[in-house]
Description:
Elements: H1 6-9, E1 12-15, H2 17-20, H3 31-36, H4 38-44, E2 48-51, E3 55-56, E4 68-72, H5 79-91, E5 95-100, H6 110-115, E6 129-130, E7 151-154, E8 159-162, H7 177-193, E9 197-200, H8 232-245, E10 252-256, H9 262-267, E11 277-279, H10 282-285, H11 290-304, E12 312-314, H12 323-327, H13 330-340, E13 346-350, H14 408-413, H15 418-431, H16 433-437, E14 439-442, E15 449-456, E16 459-466, E17 472-473, E18 482-485, E19 497-498, E20 503-506
Parallel strand pairs: 1-2, 1-13, 2-5, 5-9, 9-10, 10-11, 12-13
Antiparallel strand pairs: 3-4, 6-8, 7-8, 14-15, 15-16, 16-20, 17-19, 18-20
Helix pairs in contact: 7-8, 13-15
Amino acid sequence: MGEPPWWQSAVVYQIYPRSFCDANGDGVGDLEGIRQHLDHLVWLGVDAIWISPFFRSPMKDYGYDVADYCDVDPLFGTLEDFDRLLAEAHASGLRVLVDWVPNHTSDQHPWFQASRRSRQDPKRDWYVWRDGTPERPPNNWTASFTQSPAWTWDDATEQWYLHLFLAEQPDLNWNHPEVVAAMHDTLRFWLDRGVDGFRMDVIQCIGKHPALKDVPEKVQSIPYCALNDDPRTHALLRDIRRLIDSYPGERTSVGEVVLLDTRQVASYYGANDELHLSFNFPPLYAPWDAESWQKQIARVEAAFAPRDAWPTWVLSNHDNPRHRTRYGSEARARAAAVLLLTLRGTPFLYAGEELGLEDAVVAPDERLDPGGRDGCRAPIPWRAAPPHGWAGERPWLPWSPHAETRNAETARADPDSILHLYRRLLAVRRQSAALRWGAWEALPTCAGVLAGLRTHGEDRRAILVNFTDEPRELALAGSWTVEVASHGAAGERYEGALLPDQALVLR
């Protein structure tokens, strides 16, 4: 038997392009800024990058409102810039995933402009329109961000249109075969250019029951995107999977399934004929607590293993406060890095977490994002001296705290920095079949400590995480050596003691 596909052993690094690096001095990160820092990613040791949307967009939701799926917004550069970035990433051994937004477009997309022109337009049914009166939406669904109805009345054509997010993000009608064909063409456009796959935004929302029934009153305040679990999506995903699998080179799909039941998330893998990977977000929202994490891991194993589905793990992203901020200390962030990179599954890193970045403090008059996510999107500081490796003097958002000391230049010069911890973990992971593909077995432990064993053939690694701020004693059978320590010494025999907030990889 050969090795599993690349995306099972890979570590994927998410880049939010506005915040990664500005190469032209306009204060906004761009594709050229990403290209200039590919060397950082190669040195770090990640296997793939996922680039958040860079398509043409009015930027009402900062790129997740797409006006043209097949072009680069001038803010980020050109198609030629993307092709150059892709070629250099591939030459460096990095795979590239792009962010596909299939549930909705911008209201400035030519498709929607045609759809709202008249009820008779050929693209009218490419979106979800319903009759009614201006006073009463067609159902009680709630939109994300606004906590208001997921419907907007169009005076010109006297109908409502559906939007699970902003009014400027109308939902596509995936029940219409022409929409399916057009969206498949957008995938082909990027696959033909050579991308290695897609992160698929709120993918479980594309299928909707045509009746669009009210939700129970008790959940009416929950955004409908977190409730939608319509079986029609699965057939749509099987078609998408066949398209992606028809391309050579193990192209892949990673779905954002915004459901908090891990068993539901696992269902979007189908019978290995839907998503290749899916984000499972309950661990992202779990507190820094050993018992909570033991339960999260057990739930993932119970839901994914029977389906032969491969899990994913994520601690931070562009939609949530950074885990350094949530967990409250760098010691815990370092321990979390050890946990993230040793669990069974594909880890996703968010740009800047390897620097230990916290959320920026954004004053009320500087807030831009409709969902209040500005803090976690602060620009990445590359150099110690302002403007921290950016071409312009003032980036689009404030810097994270302590940018003068918590930046790539300073961290790389310090062998004890969290950046070097990530690099050591990635190197150990790459060398260990147990950490890449091995099974996970929970080990007997003590209060406040998570313990697990990864095995693949003769390769064995024990993972210990002390979630408390006190020392802990945990004896293990056999002789073990500390291969990586979140802090403290490595290379020594494990004697059964854990420091406060310490995580260890034992060999």
